[in-house]
Amino acid sequence: MPTFCAPDGTRLAYRTIGDGEPLLCIPGGPADAGYLGDLGGLSRHRRLILLDPRGTGRSAVPEDTASYRCDRLVEDVEALRAHLGLARPDLLGHSAGANVAMGYAARYPRSIGKLALIGPGTRAVGIEITGATRLELARLRKDEPWFPAAFAALEAVSAGTGSDWDAVTPFFCGRWDDAAREHHAAGLPVNREAVAHFGADGAFAPEATRAALAAFGAPVLLLTGEFDLNSPPRSTAELAALFPDATLSVQAGAGHYPWVDDAGRFAAAVAAFLG
After folding, report:
1. Distances (CA, A) of 7 to 72, 110, 126
2. In the prediction, which pLDDT does 1 show?
3. pTM of whole model > 0.85?
């Protein structure tokens, strides 16, 4: 697996899948990029360059834990772009990785071709996703056999009386079967320090980021699943409204991993946007 040097000297790893024009991909978590796979066959249209964030996968653990902060991770993306000698590559961010991608778009707007935000996190711009919003969305799954136990756990989490996120997991998937269980488990973060410091004080500057994104002229795709409890369609639409040139796409029947729920539909939508 190839590596490059981050600005602070940390060695970071990435993998390349497919052929064609490059697409830099930032995973959520923070977790290694393995769970992205080939993004439902998107690698048949683009050369995916999948970054393992610092402290995950094959990337080294940094000496300074403050470097796990979201705003600091932006510089790792810029170092990867420079290492590859790319002028204006397209950029994709999933989940928490979308916060990094938006931070990059705000700081380096002239270094991006197109921007794709998949199941995007919204902390970078200060959009709060309330418990009421999640409960309303969860009720759409009331006919699922696993619904009663999962919904009870979600109600407890929303009320602050419970913390059993494992029981809530089915809501993050368009279908809850063995393949979904295996994929979800593979994408769970294992570096707790990376998770804890990602949103530490100073990681986000919502007002400044909003102002920068309002002037971001490149096309942006915001794609989320119909049932995505992490990135509800309503919140993703609110995020889309911050960009001058945004396309909102809600993938029917999908959860937080739309390329797993319907690979063909996902790859076609993203490939069509990227052109």
Report:
1. 10, 20, 27
2. 86
3. yes
